[in-house]
UniProtKB/TrEMBL annotation:
Reaction(s) this enzyme catalyzes, per UniProt: dTDP-beta-L-rhamnose + NADP(+) = dTDP-4-dehydro-beta-L-rhamnose + NADPH + H(+)
Top-level lineage group: Bacteria
One Gene Ontology term, aspect cellular component: cytosol
Pathway: Carbohydrate biosynthesis; dTDP-L-rhamnose biosynthesis
Biological classification of the source: Bacteria, Pseudomonadati, Fibrobacterota, Fibrobacteria, Fibrobacterales
CDD domains, per database record: dTDP_HR_like_SDR_e
Name this protein carries in UniProt: dTDP-4-dehydrorhamnose reductase
Protein source organism: Hallerella succinigenes
Length: 306
């Protein structure tokens, strides 16, 4: 199988290419930079075949994908800076990447009759109530520009293709790129205490674990919508921070606050980001390990790469 992966200079794409290499598949890595610009951790992705491609350029997407003619595209590239996406002067670019870029890829996948995986987010929902969101629920109501444009990307895939997987994930952490854990470790080293919201509830996703599931998926024809995060239960960002400091051996005091009390975010975020993952097991896929276990392996991975 030949698999084209976008967003390899980010968290998830990096681990997807490494998972493909581990399993003997031909992975072609892509991002917007002229050459691979992710972490130099001497893993396979640093040596993989690489194609620079701006997903917002339809001609470039058509030419690159047609030349490569992959069996599968795993589309991980996105604009992921949630607060910044709210800025009036950024919104056009955010939409061009998350919605337009995804449509460009979907249209070529249709022509080539190849499978497409689109990675989406808990932020397509409004977070009302406490019931976990099911993957086939259509009550979309994004609260922010990032979520709205990711939803537009989902629709571009589902309206144009039949051979697709739309996989919604949440609260992502991986070696290569920015995430909440890295932010909290930095804050923890310089502050005695930190305020963290305890009214937004979800479950983190470790890119290393998710990459395994995504490759399992593309080996099948079990198309459709899925939710995938680590197991281990639903938690708040406050709970997550407490466990991060505990496992990292930091003594920083974590103070629980409501989103209103925190007051520093530009973008509104869903309170209820609980994702129902039962469809994974129902369709024969192996769930991810617990987030507590994932966090411990991640802290070790970071230490080994320091
Ligand atoms: N991070 C999270 O918490 C979550 C992420 N997701 C989704 O998961 C997927 C993977 O996320 P993650 O790995 O964290 O993302 P990252 O932000 O780490 O990586 C995204 C990559 O896409 C690249 N990119 C941006 N614009 C373009 C473009 N025009 N053409 C080509 N590449 C481009 C970025 O490059 P550059 O940095 O130069 O802009 C970056 O390297 C995304 O679809 C995201 O929406 C879902 C839920 C949570
Ligand atoms: C840094 C910080 C954040 N927070 C809050 C802000 C926010 O509500 C929550 C998480 O902060 P972040 O900035 O990491 O959140 P955010 O960037 O919104 O994370 C989201 O990213 C996108 C890409 C997704 O798709 C989502 O699944 C989710 O992972 O924690 C605190 O309460 N205290 C703090 O010190």
């Amino acid at each position: 199988m030949k698999i084209f992966v976008t967003g390899v200079a980010g968290q998830l794409g990096h681990d997807v290419i490494n998972e493909l290499a581990k399993r003997g598949y031909e992975g072609i890595a892509s991002d917007i930079a002229p050459t691979y610009s992710g972490i130099q951790d001497s893993s396979e992705v640093t040596q993989a075949a690489y194609r620079s491609m701006d997903i917002t350029n339809p001609k470039a997407v058509e030419a690159t994908l047609t030349e490569i003619n992959p069996d599968v595209v795993i589309h991980c590239a996105a604009w992921t800076a949630v607060d910044l996406a709210e800025d009036e002067d950024k919104q056009e670019k955010v939409r061009a990447i998350n919605a337009g870029g995804t449509k460009n890829i979907a249209l070529v996948c249709k022509k080539l009759n190849c499978k497409m995986v689109y990675i989406s987010t808990d932020y397509v929902f409004d977070g009302q109530g406490t019931k976990p969101w099911e993957p086939d629920c259509k009550d979309y109501k994004p609260l922010n520009v990032y979520g709205q444009t990711k939803l537009e990307g989902e629709l571009a895939v589902s309206e144009n293709l039949e051979k697709y997987f739309i996989v919604r994930i949440a609260w992502v952490f991986g070696l290569n790129g920015k995430n909440f854990i890295k932010t909290m470790l930095n804050v923890g080293k310089t502050h005695d205490s930190v305020r963290v919201v305890n009214d937004q509830v979800g479950t983190p996703t470790y890119t290393y674990d998710l990459a395994r599931l995504l490759v399992d998926m593309v080996e099948t024809e079990k198309y459709g919508y899925y939710h995938a995060t680590n197991e281990g239960g639903y938690i708040s960002w406050f709970d997550f921070t407490q466990e991060i400091y505990k496992q990292a051996g930091l003594k920083t005091n974590v103070l629980p606050v409501t989103t209103a009390e925190y007051g520093l975010s530009k973008a509104a975020r869903p309170f209820n980001s609980r994702l129902d993952k039962s469809k994974l097991v129902a369709n024969g896929f192996k769930p991810l390990p617990t987030w507590q276990d994932a966090l411990s392996r991640y802290l070790k991975e970071m230490q080994d790469n320091a």
